[in-house]
Design goal:
This protein is mainly alpha-helical. The protein is built from 4 helices and 2 strands, in the order αββααα. It has a two-stranded antiparallel ribbon with strand order 1-2. The radius of gyration is 15 Å and the shape is flat.
């Protein structure tokens, strides 16, 4: 991404269907579809971000991706999921205001 004040990384990532783990200088972006899947999954099973991230990290390791720090993926994924769920919640509130 070519990042500048007029084109922040977070905006560009969302335009490409990914959600950043941080609003400024994100080090991970997660597919919006994946975040929606996990959000729905955690409605039906006990939410366990640690187990989810560990499983994903092991799978990605098999695919050739390596992570420098322990729990690096878990922390960043948890941030992205939390921000995504908050944004969806706020959008739903605004839609309810318009409909009501």
């Amino acid at each position: 991404l070519a990042v500048c004040q007029c084109r922040p990384a977070a905006t560009q990532l969302i335009q490409h269907g990914a959600f950043p783990c941080a609003l400024v200088w994100p080090s991970l972006a997660v597919s919006l579809d994946m975040l929606e899947f996990v959000a729905k999954l955690f409605v039906h099973v006990a939410p366990n971000e640690r187990a989810w991230a560990a499983t994903l990290e092991k799978y990605l390791n098999v695919c050739g991706y390596q992570f420098a720090a322990k729990d690096s993926l878990r922390c960043r994924f948890a941030n992205a999921l939390s921000h995504y769920q908050m944004l969806v919640h706020l959008i739903n509130i605004e839609i309810s205001k318009i409909v009501d």
